[in-house]
Amino acid sequence: MRVLVVGSGGREHALVWKIAQSPLVRELHAAPGNPGMERLARLVPLRADDVAGLAAWAREHRVDLVVVGPEAPLVAGLADRLVQEGVPVFGPSAAAAEIEGSKAFAKEVMAAAGIPTAEHAVFSALGPALEHARARQGRVVIKADGLAAGKGVVVCGAVEEAEAALRAMLVDRVHGAAGATVVVEERLEGPEASCIGFTDGERVRMLPSAQDHKRVFDGDRGPNTGGMGAFSPSPRVGPELEREVEQKVLLPAVREMARRGRTFRGALYAGLMLTARGPRVLEFNARLGDPETQPILLRLAGDIVPVLLGVARGDLSKVEMRFDRRAAVGIVLAAEGYPGKVVTGDAIEGADGSFPDGVQVFQAGTARSADGRLVTAGGRVLTACALGDGLAEASARAYEAAARVRFRGCHYRRDIGRHGA
Prior knowledge:
Blueprint lengths: L1 E6 L2 H10 L7 E6 L9 E2 L7 H10 L4 E4 L2 H5 L2 H7 L4 E2 L3 H8 L1 H11 L6 E4 L2 H10 L4 E5 L8 E3 L3 H13 L10 E5 L5 E8 L4 E3 L4 E2 L2 E3 L3 E4 L4 E4 L6 H21 L6 E10 L2 E8 L7 H7 E2 L3 H9 L8 E2 L3 E8 L24 E5 L2 E3 L5 E3 L3 E9 L2 H14 L17
Parallel strand pairs: 1-2, 1-4, 2-3, 4-5
Antiparallel strand pairs: 6-9, 7-8, 7-9, 10-11, 10-16, 12-15, 13-14, 15-20, 16-17, 18-19, 20-24, 21-24, 22-23
Helix pairs in contact: 1-10, 5-6, 6-9, 7-8
């Protein structure tokens, strides 16, 4: 088979790493990819959001499967265009990807399907939104309706915070058109968990649970990021809760989307808050999570390609997955300034070397300088991942790997997986 992976982040590096192990694959390409993928795949100089270019390239090179990593190309219709070209694709149509592209639409789907979530209201004007937030003493979560690269969510504890967030989105348009409409939710309490299922539009095959860490500093302090690290499995998501999420969250969402004529084929991600009243959905994503994918794929035993093909062909009936019983931890190494204004172009040392079995460093915000050196080129630069007998050992091994990588301004959380929740 010829396989093309679309994207350039740590999630896509992990997908390339896993797909490259398949005996079914003869040629593996990544567009645009990153330097970490060079040993495993041929890099294609096309942007992930170049829908027409990617579809034409896949057709001309007789690609047998395209695996789309990021959400933006899916929302822009890349899967639709590939299907038109007769190319099998792992990833939902634009109509189905709206479950991530619009938080207001996702809430509508949840309400219709009876999926438990936070109470909410949708606003496009500052005045009514402020009135709503003030009535709740500012204890709300404010979300940009559209795609905001993981940075469109503000958790507020006071009226002043809520007002500042609403003004930033609705008036100052810090997220552009993505923040022209906002969803204002009740603020739920409890630990979070990520539950992801592969779906062919009818069936769901669950991946192991994970927990992401969105805040930039230890102890969940500081602003939200795209994710500073993750571990799998979540000790709080046992087999019974996992079945509950499959039966009461993912399957109802898949069925509701099909009922609306928006059949969802791909990875459906449910971000959950585990409240005292049970799990509540915080968000749906139309793709694999980043950084959750990195530790999850480290635990996937066997060949991933038949699973991806089953999704693309709309038939997972004969597909099963096995996972390593060990835990996995992934730590994101970020560039100076992240999640604000990021400094790039700093030389990276220690990322290209060999690591022990069960340890992988997945690249994301990296590039090659004119003289061939590996340099920083984005906010989240790398993810150091490791397997271990329990979260404590996996965390210790991941931090050993992180310590081997050096670049100016590097910062990362020191508590990923350390407390098991």
